[in-house]
Amino acid sequence: MLDIEAIATAQSEIPVLEFQQVCLEYALNQQRLAIIEEVTFSIERAEFISIVGPSGCGKTSLLRMISGLHPATQGTVRFRGQPIVKPLKNVGIAFQKPVLLPWRNTLQNVLLPLEVVPPYKRKFRENLPRYTQAAQELLATVGLSDFKTHYPWQLSGGMQQRASLCRALIHQPEILLLDEPFGALDAFTREEMWVMMQALWQKTQCTAVLVTHDLREAIFLSDKVYVMGPRPSRIIYELQVDLPRPRTLETCLTDEFNHLFAEVRRHIRRG
Ligand SMILES: Nc1ncnc2c1ncn2[C@@H]1O[C@H](COP(=O)(O)OP(=O)(O)OP(=O)(O)O)[C@@H](O)[C@H]1O
């Protein structure tokens, strides 16, 4: 094998994200509050993983460490083999609240990161036709082609969240962080969003990390589900989800799906 091929192969084998004996504490009223203890796991390129666990166990904090917004107190979080020491650039984030700008229409909201984030903003005007096409493709994937010129207040909650997911992906981030993005939606809309999320992930081939309280959502979307225990928390269980893709809502009715659900549920109870 040529050296260059060997290097490329070695690089492709490095996990995109690695947590190595990571501990996290917060300072609160001059006391140290231990949140996460000795978490070690890794995420491969283009994997979709979920983190579930009791409220307050540190799931969002874990996303913050990946994004580089908060450092680990001990241990190392790595992105492609390098310790994360500052905010990562190639990350897309979606939260429970879609937070679209009310004075911009759907398309303009989706394009926003390209307008403000380097290096895209430098050539925004020049590349606008290409960016617009990319935004339109994402919007088509989530069924919003007919709502490009609508303003946020003209969209349902589910539609706003779909637009927010497109915005998180418009700069083709390598990593997508999802912090309970469907938590505020009704049960039917939420299930539709799972199907759309799967389509977006398959289209973009990003590495996705989802924090959710919904175990069915975690199983539906993920290759692996990590269960965190109560604070100070560790990963207490890892579930491999080998259900074939693309999954449909009928997948949730199968014995195999229900077996996986029971398995995660049992470990959360134990935690
Ligand atoms: N900046 C901070 N300073 C001090 N304590 C914090 C800070 N951020 C979070 N915490 C505390 O850390 C703990 C974990 O918070 P985090 O939001 O990561 O948990 P979570 O598992 O995502 O919770 P939930 O499921 O309820 O959203 C909580 O007790 C929270 O109060």
UniProtKB/TrEMBL annotation:
Sequence ranges assigned to domain ABC transporter in this UniProt record: 17-255
Secretion signal, residue range per the UniProt entry: none
UniProt name for this protein: Nitrate ABC transporter ATP-binding protein
Main location group: membrane
Organism of derivation: Desertifilum tharense IPPAS B-1220
This protein's UniProt keywords: ATP-binding, Nucleotide-binding, Transport
Keyword Secreted appears in the UniProt entry: no
Compartment annotation: Cell inner membrane
Gene Ontology MF annotations: ATP binding; ATP hydrolysis activity
GO cellular component: plasma membrane
Membrane topology value: Peripheral membrane protein
Pfam family, one: ABC_tran
InterPro entries in the cross-refs: AAA+_ATPase, ABC_transporter-like_ATP-bd, ABC_transporter-like_CS, ABC_transporter_ATP-bind, P-loop_NTPase
Record family assignment: Belongs to the ABC transporter superfamily. Nitrate/nitrite/cyanate uptake transporter (NitT) (TC 3.A.1.16) family.
PANTHER family: ALIPHATIC SULFONATES IMPORT ATP-BINDING PROTEIN SSUB (PTHR42788:SF13), TAURINE IMPORT ATP-BINDING PROTEIN-RELATED (PTHR42788)
Listed SUPFAM superfamilies: P-loop containing nucleoside triphosphate hydrolases (SSF52540)
Domain of life: Bacteria
Presence of keyword Membrane: no
